[in-house]
Amino acid sequence: xxxxxxxxxxxxxxxxxxxxxxxxxxxxxxxxxxxxxxxxxxxxxxxxxxxxxxxxxxxxxxxxxxxxxxxxxxxxxxxxxxxxxxxxxxxxxxxxxxxxxxxxxxxxxxxxxxxxxxxxxxxxxxxxxxxxxxxxxxxxxxxxxxxxxxxxxxxxxxxxxxxxxxxxxxxxxxxxxxxxxxxxxxxxxxxxxxxxxxxxxxxxxxxxxxxxxxxxxxxxxxxxxxxxxxxxxxxxxxxxxxxxxxxxxxxxxxxxxxxxxxxxxxxxxxxxxxxxxxxxxxxxxxxxxxxxxxxxxxxxxxxxxxxxxxxxxxxxxxxxxxxxxxxxxxxxxxxxxxxxxxxxxxxxxxxxxxxxxxxxxxxxxxxxxxxxxxxxxxxxxxxxxxxxxxxxxxxxxxxxxxxxxxxxxxxxxxxxxxxxxxxxxxxxxxxxxxxxxxxxxxxxxxxxxxxxxxxxxxxxxxxxxxxxxxxxxxxxxxxxxxxxxxxxxxxxxxxxxxxxxxxxxxxxxxxxxxxxxxxxxxxxxxx
Length: 527
Fold this sequence. Notes:
By secondary structure, the protein is an all-alpha fold. The protein has helices at residues 6-28, 34-41, 45-48, 50-62, 66-73, 75-95, 99-126, 133-161, 166-169, 171-185, 203-222, 232-254, 268-297, 303-314, 316-328, 335-352, 365-386, 395-435, 441-458, 461-499, 513-526.
């Protein structure tokens, strides 16, 4: 297949990067809409967070399978069908009227979206000569970080000026145009989709992966609200998760053509790199989930203000990612980048955990800028480090597994944050209420002042006392949530600090230009 030139190349770059950003926007665009969606569908914030988790689970399942599916059906066909699935699911999400309905369609959207992300990168890399692939890597790297950050900004604008279904409907015209351009300008690779007879489908491995990951995620997501093992459902899902994942690992290690090649984890370097990647997933997804809820629920930001607060510092990645890609292409050791990136992300989380309730929007710029630089410094180096020590034939398997772990870390992080926030909220509320009793002079004076203010405004003498108590209850509620969000940022800090010493187990191997080109090519086909 000849490398495209001129207008055709520009269209392919525009189409693939746009499709990838669209998919990544949908990982976070709902974050600022959770309050509106929960009110519209009649559920609480913890339940509606399943629209994020369902998407992440679908990504976790589909990402390691995209290489096989693209080879089986043909990359161009698989790409176009995935785009159509994503577009239709987006429409159905916008039309959903119940929690169950939107969760199902978000899962379907995640299946199409996971394929879009990985295949877009493979097609983009093929549009460049090997020597120019660091440029492609930088372009795609910007999308990896900008997509999840553009999501809250775009979602916030839509929530402030329209209604939440539009956050899904805007995908429709983009999906239609991208499908047409892909059909017209993307060429098939030689022999694409013609090797079906020689491909074995690992149905058992795929099923075990779905059962294990799905059950684990349900247990983590619902455990706190169902009082953990006092619930029969949690007991059943925990058993299914344990049996499903153990069976998946055993089965994948014992067959010749597994859906996920776990044998590459025999390489110590990859095994430890996946730990770093898992923590990056936890931090990346959890931070984009917790910050919008903190800003809207306790600080009173509008959805759009929340998005803009996130967007400005993250634009730093537009400068950082191409630079990191260029430096990495010269064979520079990725380990210093990983260490510095983790320290910067830990600094972001620690500073975020120290904000006061009267924090100004501008005060978030520095910690969010640290987050942006930290993410920029770990994305490409971790891909590079994942394959250090692997044979070229195992690059795609190693990178696919590494990227699956990142998505799994994200799904785990959101579930962990939900449970941790719920537990810390209950504890903080108990502590605050214990200080606000009928015998407290401060409480008596405060409630009296509020009651007098209500009487002056409404003239309702009889109901002023009850309204004053309700007002104090809302203040206690908001403060308890605020403290629990800060606790979550501290937890993220601990995650990032604890894994840094593990860099001692990572092997450093300087790569030649040819090896770097092979790594980037494998990354494109396995992402």
